[in-house]
Amino acid sequence: MAGRNGSVVSATRLLAIARKEFIQLYRDPRSLAIIFAMPLLLLLLFGYAVTLDIKQVLVAVYDQEQSEKSRDFIHRFAQSRYFLVAANVRGYGALTRLIDLREAQVGLVIPNDFSRSLDSGRPTAVQVLLDGSDANTANIILGYTRAVVQGYSQEVLLDYLARQGVTDRRIPVELRPRVWFNEELESKNYIVPGLIALIMAVIGALLTSLTIAREWERGTMEQLVATPVHKLELMIGKLAPYYLVAIIDVAIAMAVGVWLFEVPFRGSLPVFFFLSSMFLFVVLGQGFLISVVAKSQLVANQIALISTFLPAFLLSGFMFSIANMPLALRAVTTAVPARYFVTILQGLFLKGVGLRVLWPELLALVLFIAVVGGLAHRRFSKTIT
To answer: What is the Cα–Cα distance from 24 to 334, expressed in whole angstroms?
Structure first.
């Protein structure tokens, strides 16, 4: 490989730089903690803490009728795996107080003419009070509530038609849902793959953001410049050790996701590690570029954290759907590498798709590698000349 001034990149010099960086890494407890402890800690913390599943919704009931039919209606909520009847109250004051104290998330009010309306075939209104301070949770609970009420209403309607002598009581449209890829609708099944992308984006950039900045702060950069080591040899030699430990982190994170969180992996392992390597090349190059520009470990660390964590968390589709974002913000997400890796991981883990489907994301990562690598190479050449 041609190097500076037409010379050839030496494998001996490259390995010497890589060996020096390995020794430096081994002697730095902070870097070792970042490499191995932080990914596991973040994965366990986010994996258990971040969940969109809502179960055991506490319900407070104000049954004004106290009839057999009203009790049967309440029992439908108690039978659901999503609701837990926490209290029966005798007035609106007690009901609102429980919601204010967060001892109930739903208030269910059954009118005193509930049975009479059902027996006569007239529609009856049941009031549902929701704590809307958390809009997302309230919307999910409202969906659960509607499902229970609609199921009960369907049975009541069929019973009423039977009493009226209607023999054909078939429902015109019967919904038979089938969920693909995440049959139980468990949020961890798509959160954990997204977590791997988030963690590797942060860890990869943090590690390499210190490489050149550390040389400047310790006064060893001038010694490296004075050696016959070419800038390309220096770049590859410094990044190679971090790539190796980062790909080990990817394997550990994947194993934790599959075995501890029981997230299904339906894709190909070679494709998984190939695409993970492409993403690591992007974030490692991004960290190297930050290190070259900053020349201070503290500044480089802060820039790396801000430029990776916030975009990966907010704009990658990991937590918030990109399709629901404003058009201008959706355009911004195209410049976030983690967006493409989140799509890759969710496709590999849940759908089991391969490169035939994921080639657009691979192409995007290749473009990022070219841009980030080119900028790092150009900027680095200005620094050492």
So the answer is: 36
CB-count burial class (<10 Å; 0-12, 13-18, 19+) for 93: exposed
Q: Give the structural domain span for 350.
A: 4-51+187-384
Q: CB of 299 within 8 A of CB of 218?
A: no
How wide is the angle at C-alpha 300 spanned by C-alphas 297 and 302, nearest 5°?
Answer: 110
Is 189 in contact with 264 (CB distance < 8 Å)?
A: yes
Task: Report residue 26: phi and psi, to 5°.
Answer: -65, -35
Same domain, 309 and 191: yes
Tell me if 292 sits within 8 A of 380, measured CB to CB: yes
* One domain, residues 137 and 268: no
187: nearest Cα among 309, 84, 50: 50
Last residue in a domain, options 115, 148, 163: 163
382 sits in which H/E element = helix 355-384
CATH number, domain with residue 138: 3.40.1710.10
Task: Count CB-CB contacts under 10 A for residue 46.
Answer: 19
Instruction: Say yes or no: 34 and 67 in one domain.
Output: no
Query: pLDDT truncated to tens, each residue of the chain (385 aa)?
Result: 444 444 466 777 778 878 877 877 777 777 777 777 888 888 888 878 777 778 789 999 999 999 998 999 999 998 888 899 999 999 889 999 999 988 999 999 999 988 888 878 788 889 999 988 888 888 889 989 998 998 888 888 777 777 777 666 666 667 777 888 888 778 888 888 988 998 889 888 888 887 777 766 666 665 666 666 777 777 888 888 889 988 999 999 999 999 989 899 999 999 999 999 999 999 999 988 888 888 777 888 888 888 888 898 889 988 888 988 899 999 999 999 999 999 999 999 999 999 999 999 999 999 999 999 888 888 875 444 4
Q: Considering 163, 198, 230, which residue would you say is the last residue of a domain?
A: 163
Q: Are residues 135 and 32 in the same domain?
A: no
Is the domain of 235 the same as that of 349? yes
